Each structure stands twice: as structure tokens, then as C-alpha cells.
Amino acid sequence: MVSSRSSSLTSGDTLKHAAIGAVVSLVTFFLPFSPAIGGGVAGYLHGPDREAGATVGGLSGVLAAIPGAVIATLIASVFVIAGPGQRSGLLVAFVFFLVILVVSVAYGAVVGAVGGFVGAYLNEEFSGPTETETERFRDPTTLREGAGSDGPDDDPDPDPELTGFDEADDGSDRN
């Protein structure tokens, strides 16, 4: 028997949502905790399951960390001068790349998972992008007619001059 968690993680939408979240993380790289923003988007798109949202958010953070580590290594490699016969400079650059990759993947996975959890919670709270009720978009007169009333005149409108803060004036003055 396949659990709902494993079926949601093997769907094709998981990778698509994680990739969208990674792109959001890369676009917002200049903001603090940008993997949380991308993970939140991925978790919100993935659905109301918080565990699956955290998973897709973490995957989003990992996908966003890889280009970041490559760019950081390219920038840092400017400072490593390796002439002919100097293999230690290339070794230092490679070790630096591995360290940056491990740290950025761990950071992206943890922060993205937190964002994915929050995104899935928000999806549950706001009924998500795919669970919009179609009744909201119908004409109000068709809803009244479908509810068994004789037409739009059965529900009289309140006094248009009265607001929620006004009270009906009975002619007495309370000073």
C-alpha cells in the first residue's frame, strides 16, 4: 500500500514546484533568507500537506544553492593564482568549492524547508490556488434564484443612507 506522502513526493509536480521555488530564491538572492521565500512559494504551490511542503521547500533550497556555490567559487577563484606546475592552488580552489557547496546546500535545505512548511500552512489557511469556490464568481441573482427564492426582490437592500456606524435617527437629541 502506497502512503499519501510517498505518492505526493513522486509526482511530477514536486520537481516543477521546487524548480519554481529555486528560481524565486535566485531572483531574490539579495534579500536575507531568500531560500525561505522560494521554499514558501514552492510549499504554497505544492499544497496544504505541511510535510510535503517542507520537503519541496528543502528541495527548492538545494536546487538554488548549486548555482550560488558555482558563482561563489568562480568569484573566489580570482584570488587563487595557479601558475604552471602549481597544483596546490587548484586543489585549494576545489576544496573551497566543496566547502561552499556543502554549507550553501545545508543552509538552503534548512531555510527552504522552513519556508515550504509555512507556504503549505498558508495554502491550507487560504484554500490554495486550485481550490477556489466557483460560487464566488457567479452572479448573485442566480444564487438567489437557485436557493429557492422568487427573485432578487425577496431580499430588500438596507437603507442606502445608513452606514454601519450610523444609527437610525428617532428625533431625540442626547446631549
From TrEMBL:
Keyword set, alphabetical order: Membrane, Transmembrane, Transmembrane helix
Entry annotated with the keyword Glycosyltransferase: no
Composition-biased stretches (Acidic residues): 151-175
UniProt biased composition (Basic and acidic residues): 133-142
Region of interest called Disordered, as start-end residue ranges on this chain: 128-175
Membrane-spanning intervals of the chain: 20-45, 57-82, 89-122
Keyword Transmembrane: yes
Pfam families, per the entry: DUF5518 (PF17647)
Source species, domain of life: Archaea
Record's protein name: DUF5518 domain-containing protein
